[in-house]
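notes to self, project folder thing:

trying the whole complex as one job this time. last attempt i did each chain seperately and stitching them together was a nightmare. two parts in total, labels are on each line so i dont mix them up again. if this works i'll redo the older ones the same way
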Amino acid sequence: MTEATHTVKSYEQELERLRGMMARMGGLVERQTAQAVKAVVDGDEEAAIEAPDLDPEVDELEREAEALAIRILALRSPMAIDLREIVAALKITGDLERIGDYAASIARRALKLDMDGGISLIGLRSMGRLVQDNLRRAIDALATRDRDLAVAVWQSDTAVDELYTAMFRELMTYMMEDPRNIGSCIHLLFVAKNLERIGDHTTNIAERIYYAVTGEMLPAVRPRGGLGPQQTPPAIPDAR
Amino acid sequence: MTGAELALCLLGAFCLGLMPGWLAGGRRLPQRPAFLPASRRDESITRDVGLEEMLGFLPDCAVLLARNGSLRFANAEALAVFGDALGTIIRHPDVFAALQRLDAETVLATADIVLDVPVRRVVRLVFRLVPEALSQAGVPVLAILSDRSEKEAVERVRADFVAYASHELRTPLAALIGFIETLRGPAADDPAAQKQFLEIMATQAGRMQRLIEQLLALSRVEMTEHRRPRDEVDAAQVVARVRDESAPLCSARGIVLETEAHPVAFQGDEDQIVQVLLNLVENATKYAVTGKRVPVVSLVTSEGVVGGKDGVSFTVTDNGPGIEAQHLPRLTERFYRVEGGQGATAPGYGLGLAIVRHIVDRHDGRLFIDSVVGEGTRITVWLPVRGERRQARERPSLLLG
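result (full assembly):
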């Protein structure tokens, strides 16, 4: 085996390792988010404990992935799509780590929730499902480098924003109805806010995948929901 | 023989050199599934072609994984059953943990995982370290996946049944016990009261019996929900059956059911469709007689396109008092009853439309409910002429016209 092919092969292996780490991180934060949502809407205590427990593993993976990415940058001077992929990986792992933090924080709040005020969790349940599904599709797009799927995820966060605004109003009503609800409602408000933040980081991931694959940026202004009827969504660039 | 055993036997046979040589040097599979990463250097995969082709024959879901958990190959069955949920299954932390357990001594591992999105699924994975002779290139793990969602659904249905039955039967049963105590005590020597109480008790017992029958029907429908019907059904024949079978009910309520049917063939379960229409006609007659006009109920078929697919629609219309808009989205919830007393002459259990919805979902159809207060109600069941295999077992949403 010649020296040249050997070099290329181990380079490919390093990239493969980096992708593997991202997939693992993705799986972990998907699980954290799923458990966090379950902890709140089903009052599942085991799930509430598991989500923060996975956090150190995610953090560790982020550090490893960062070190590997910097190593590849320093030693291999990658170009074009490889360079973009590694730069995107640096940012995506950051987003994934933040998502994990938010999920852990939701799960910790679930332990403090005292749900007998007759507060409906239906809105939160559907918001949780939507956020989870977007996260799943974003990580799928990451694994398959699927540009169209990334755009679809980027656009569908509007529904999460809508639900968040609706939740905000609903919880406000509960608080006005009965001051005894305020404690639970504030926790739920933070839960909803954190879910919304997870949705935002998911769109960030979608943006970075789009950039890594096409070399172009999605518009800076993303279509947003929950603001009112007057808004025109920015046009999606026709890639290639 | 389970999938895992079958795969292991195949592997064993292969190792012993019993498989014909052409498999070992076989060609690449023609198509790479869309979700597999399009690696630029594929030589690591091509060497496993023999194994991949073998797995292609398996009637079970088989995937090949790299040591770090990345997905390298999925057979046709795995793609058909799990579709785009495969990625999220393989990424699950429990799968990675199971892979870590595999080494020279431990060649088998299992993981059971539960997914919430895109649809609720319970999946069991059995991992097997592939002998080195078969995999030189970093694809050392074979996983056999089995979908346990159905089993879990059956258990959930059973639990629901017990919960609903005990909840709904408690009230009439308490009434019966009350009457029995009265008959034994204060009314022991009062034949007139006894006659009256026995009358009420018979009605209550009859109600309980019908409730149990409906609950059983609902459970049966729920359990077959994931299996697509395959029979060919003729719309005109369905309408004829509904007209005949609803005749006693209609004449008892003084209504003539007007029908108009076209002979359209579609894929479905005839008994279930008849059941759907009978439920709708029964509801319609119940409402029509409480209206202020001469009751009219009709059942009409037509052809229509919904969501780009050809289909047949059955429309049941009544001229009863109508239903207020606020109730419409909730009508198909089980035990949902419209308050207001107008239907009180023939109280139901709120299960009829729940059964209708499950059957319509099973046929991949749609249910449209229109109602104008004071004018009447129109319910349309649309069913596709030829059902396609559903990609995901998601429940088609209830659309309101």
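what i see at first glance: The first strand of chain B starts at residue 61 and ends at 65.
need to look closer tmrw
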